[in-house]
Structures
1.
Amino acid sequence: MIDVGTNSVKLRVADRAADGEWRPVVDRSEVTRLGEGMNADGTISAAAAARTADEVAGMADESKRQNVREIVTIGTAALRAATNRDDVLATIRERSGLAVEVISEDDEARLAFVAVRSVLPAAGGSFVVFDSGGGSSQFTFGDGGRVAEWFSVPVGSARYTDAFGLDRAVDADVVADARAAIAADLRPVAGCPGPARLVGMGGAATNMTAVMLALDPYDPDRVQGATLPADEVERQIERYRAMDADSRRVIAGLQPDRAEVILAGACIVRTLMDLFGVDELTVSDRGIRHGVFLDRFG
């Protein structure tokens, strides 16, 4: 299973064990920034398409070495929005031999919830699951074991990184402006009642949790189900704000290739916590690729 996202490409290979459960063989992510700079005219650059296609090709080769029976490849926000989507898909197909299925916003939100539900205990009372990526954020609203609705909004870390120059050290005023823009773009969420439980997934939430725990190397079992407090998010925003991307790369727990977008991602997470009126969130290490895997293969 390969997930071609706006900021990263993710791979999951699994075997079905004798008890019927799927056991991971490979589960990793590589940052390629497919959506870098596409706000200007809606096109994905040839360079971003090429490096993403090369990564997909490498993951396809790795999957074949594992003797997989099938490779499912999906694309999300950047490929949904790109005006040159067909050209990018052709580049990926030419280099990897794989046809990318671009899924809808509703499907992305639904699959994010499928992934979280598979590993977190059922929440009592109201809950919200959000997956903040490079190009969009998906939301699932529910109560107890029942899902009420899900939707997606075009709020992602790559967009605000490019718009506000958040890949480098910036003044506090710049961060304030970015957070105001994020809040404005999250209008569909504003006014929703505060949930009993907020669950965050995606690179921003997991990387901030890894930094909080100083995980080097990354340990998915410690990140899965961890609690990320609002004051820790604020502390990290201030830390990243004072650093350029190269300085951020040496922070224990931060995936080096996320150094450019982590400040924007942290701002999105903190803004969501404000909008939902919560002072902490539960973090899920599982993502869209896990949801697709469960949805397609059971």
2.
Amino acid sequence: MSANLKPNPFLASSTTSPGMKLVFRGTAREYFPIWIVNLCLSLATFGIYSAWAKVRKKRYFYSHTTLDGTPFQYLGQPLPILKGRIIAAILLGIYWITSQFFVSVLPWVLLVGFLLLPWVVVRAAAFNARYSAYRNLTFDFDGNYWGAVKAFYLWALIMIPTLGLGFSWWQQRIKRFMVEHYSFGGERGTFSATGGQFFKIYFLAGVLMIVAGLIATGIMFSMPAFSLRYAWIGAIPIYAAYVLAYALTRARLGNLVWNNTTLGPLRFHSTLKARTLAALYFGNALAIIFSAGLLTPWAVIRTMKYRADNMEVLFEGELDDFIGGGRTAVQATGAEVGEFFDFDISL
């Protein structure tokens, strides 16, 4: 970050009440044309247009998300994203070719991927932060490769002596690494959630799945004539428990992470509810299935609106604590490789 930092007069003159609601004003009617054009052109161009599609989608979502009446901004450009996606496609192609035709080389390809993963994490976070802005100030992520290695790999070793029970503490370290290397206007994030708090959430989700498995087993073997023909009956409680467990972890982990994150004078208050989120996911899935995918924009919009409605930003101090820093370009390669391989590094 630049040493010659100057106060941002736009922020310095802001007056805000404690407790700023995050508001999402997007609608399915507005988003559907963007979604359908993005889909059709991406298919027609064999994925080339997907870079422009990503920018259009993100600009719509950012510009329709406001905090204290001011929208967020997405500053990414299509061409750097396209270059990153081409590189990601090449890497995926190398993996597929070696796994199908040169199996003896596959371990070396996986080793290279293992070594590249921390770099992908850091560069993806840096790109997403650099090209996300609020009130003309961009976010920043200054995590480095070795910090990511420590968080993602060294802390993963805790699962060996704990027979997997250390997974929660590993996840806590990853979230802490991500949060504490983000900054906005010269203010760095801090993270106070503990591994024990993560463990309680994962433990409860695990209990749900175990109970569902026992119920399914009881149903199957209580049938007078056990037959694989009726196996779907026993699968019902398992699928229901999976949706509920997934919604529970998403809601409670989201609340835990945000409610224990501070950014300078800013604190966050997330109030997601597992039951509501589970009903949301279930309704979205049914709508998408029975509409042959055409209600996907509706499902996306209602999910984003629910998340925004349950997020509040609190502040202690003045908004003029935020100051502008120097901007540097960040390559999109890491972000697109992470997205291509469906690697989630979000908070």
3.
Amino acid sequence: MNVKQIAELTNLAFKEATGREDLTTEDLSNIVDLGTAVFNANALDNYVRALVDKIGKTIFVSRAYSGNAPKVLMDAWEWGSVVEKVRMQIPEATENPTWKLEDGETYDQDKFTQPKIKVKFFNSKTTFEVPISITEIQAKESFTSASAMTGFIEMIYNTMEISMNKRFDELILRVIANAIGETIASDYGEDALNSKSGIKAVNILKLYNDEFGTTLTADKAFRDKEFLRYSSTIIKEYIKRMEKLSTLFNVSGVEKFTPRDLLHVDLFTEYVSKVSAYLESDTFHNELVALPNYEEIAYWQGTGKEYKDAGKLKITTASGKQVEVTGKILGVLFDRDALGVYNYNKRVPSHRNDHAEFWNLWYKQDASYFNDLDENCVVFFIQ
């Protein structure tokens, strides 16, 4: 064991903490052990300098990761493959003769009116797996008891769960990203995203600058109180608007409405934090939290190396549209039925290799991911 004397350092630290001396550069190599990958020649006892230090305590780095992607997981099923989605078109009104009766006329009440039904089928599935091997007898050499080795194996299993959950998180975010991309592509087509604001792909920065005659840029918008107040108002208005029957808020132009209990509200974490900090008010936050399906998303596609790209999006959508948001996506409102993940089938098949005496395990997961462009989805961004 490497033992160091730190009396001098503690004396200096005490003087700095009590204001008796100014701060100075401290050599913390005398205190902090950064660890080594393996033992080296210095791992000898401090008595006879010949005995190898023994491991007195083993800490397995193992903690559960349940995932933090938006909760869009839907019912699973065992048999069959296809998801069939059936909806009825809203019928037109017809003239009523009650107040226009004429002598001798016949009024037909036996006319058959067939309901206009539209059916969609979703039948795509993905499977991914993460393999791992567990030895049967070899691992015993590194432990002094069965319970110690059990802790090691449990750490491996837990790490595999983390791997699966994280990948599932990212797939869910891609389903949401595709819905965002399809919505933006529908409103903008080949037009530049900073050239206008769509009705369901809303460039709030463009609306703000046009309304107030300002030239605020995307990189400064999150530090502007007036913009933050304006943008939060727009989002709240849309939450109310989507409750009304309309063709405006979905790509297909279908008559739809989304009550609050079926509305998912996913907002960019950085945007929410800036609204809370700069407006010095909990009103907006409390209203959002009160919604049944309100969640914050730390990034839409990835963090980048410095989290500076967390608000951006650059994808090719399922329909082949190229969409790139170089500013920031503030959030997305979507109907419960607009997107989701079905057929969640998690399993861990295993196989024993008797020749080399180890086990192979495959952590596998199936899922069907869908976007329904008939359902309401509204995107808010700045560019």
